[in-house]
Amino acid sequence: MTHRMRATHDAILVGIGTVLCDNPQLSARLLPAGETPCHPQPVVLDPMLRTPMDARLLAGPKDNADLKMPWIVAGPNADSGKRRLLEELGATVIVVNDVDDEGRPRLGKVVGELERRGAKRLMVEGGAQVIRAFLRSERMVHRLVITIAPVYIGAAEGVPAVDTVLPHIRPLAYEQFGCDVVMVADLQKQ
């Protein structure tokens, strides 16, 4: 289901934590037989350019011409030498100068830059800090698709679960896929 959803979006965004922890490809390769994948543009929020040179995001397009090299969104203080190396490997480094108090590019500016580059439908896949930041940003999230799996994942220190700033949701549908439950919900206007 995740790969089919990815195929319906122009771009898929994750944070650097997801890249470092999971080393994803961010493709739509696992589709049912007969469906041709339409791979989204991978986007990584990586303010200090910590993306490893051997990340699957950088290697995948060399092995499969249908995959796209990532856009890596950096802050103004990112290492220029690392930027050159990533660009030599084929990545596009997008520097966003408007940052928050912690040096992270402001999401409104990031989304605006992605739209300018043709990414009109953006899927934010994670991780927890990125998802929380998008949920806290007004009018940036239209629909949530939440997968609940019966496994524990992540580090011992996670993102706090309770946050009074987060929006309320209106569930639209639930469906079970094996052991996983998927919920689709719209955000409620407050």
Explain the overall architecture.
It holds the Pfam family RibD_C. Belongs to the HTP reductase family. This is 2,5-diamino-6-ribosylamino-4(3H)-pyrimidinone 5'-phosphate reductase. Its EC number is 1.1.1.302. It is a single chain. This protein is an alpha/beta fold and 190 residues long. The chain has helices at residues 2-7, 16-22, 56-63, 80-88, 107-116, 128-136, and strands spanning 11-15, 41-45, 71-74, 92-95, 122-126, 143-148, 169-177, 180-187. The strands form two sheets. A five-stranded parallel beta sheet has the order 4-3-2-1-5, sandwiched between helices. The chain has a three-stranded antiparallel beta sheet with strand order 6-8-7, with no helix packed on it. The two termini are 30 Å apart.
Summarize the structure.
This protein has 190 residues and is α/β, with parallel strands linked by helices. Helices cover 26% and strands 24% of the residues. Pathway: Cofactor biosynthesis; riboflavin biosynthesis.
Please report the distance between the alpha carbons of the first and last residues.
Answer: 30 Å
State the domain count: 1
| Binned strand content | 15-25%
CATH topology: Dihydrofolate Reductase, subunit A
Question: Secondary-structure blueprint of this entry?
Answer:
Elements: H1 2-7, E1 11-15, H2 16-22, E2 41-45, H3 56-63, E3 71-74, H4 80-88, E4 92-95, H5 107-116, E5 122-126, H6 128-136, E6 143-148, E7 169-177, E8 180-187
Parallel strand pairs: 1-2, 1-5, 2-3, 3-4
Antiparallel strand pairs: 6-8, 7-8
